[in-house]
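User: Before I run my own analysis I want an independent prediction to cross-check against. Here's the chain; please return only the C-alpha cells and, at the end, one sentence I can use as a sanity check.
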Amino acid sequence: MNNQNINIVPTGKQSVMCPRCGKLLTWVDESDKKHHKVMCTHCRKWIWFWAGTQEFQIKEVPQRTSASGMRLY
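Assistant: C-alpha cells:
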C-alpha cells in the first residue's frame, strides 16, 4: 500500500496517480467499492486500484491476440 500517491481533494474524490511515474490516471469516489483498471499511457502498465482499501497492483498489458487489434483476455 502506497499512500503517498493518493491525494484527497475538497470535492470528496481521490486522485489516483501512477505509482511508477506519478501521472494522474483518474478520479474516484471515496465510497466506491469496486476496482478500477486503468492503463498508464506514460509507462505502459495496467494500474489496478481499489478505492475502498486504497491498494494498488501493477500488471503488464497483455499482447493482442487477434489480427483485428482487439484484445481478447
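Sanity check: The radius of gyration is 14 Å.
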